[in-house]
Amino acid sequence: xxxxxxxxxxxxxxxxxxxxxxxxxxxxxxxxxxxxxxxxxxxxxxxxxxxxxxxxxxxxxxxxxxxxxxxxxxxxxxxxxxxxxxxxxxxxxxxxxxxxxxxxxxxxxxxxxxxxxxx
Length: 119
What we know:
Structural class: mainly beta
Largest sheet: 7 strands, mixed
Number of helices: 0
Order of helices and strands: EEEEEEEEEEE
């Protein structure tokens, strides 16, 4: 399993970013995929997930601002982030689920991409 996130960067508060994740080594379309983040001094947290069927989950802190999507033909996962806040500053990781649904947990994490939101 290989998961490579990219597309992070420095953005001002209120701005937008769209990290992406290239996946390989497994049948991408058969698994739930998610985005985690870890801010300095904090635990890693799940911010969004998308099942193989397209059902989604969002942490309360990002609902209405982040949109997770996937392209099964390209083995790609995306996170459209808008109305960014300084509290969104973190390393963002994509993750592979243990199965197809949103409730089975995650078992692989890739390299992260850093998102920095300035005030």
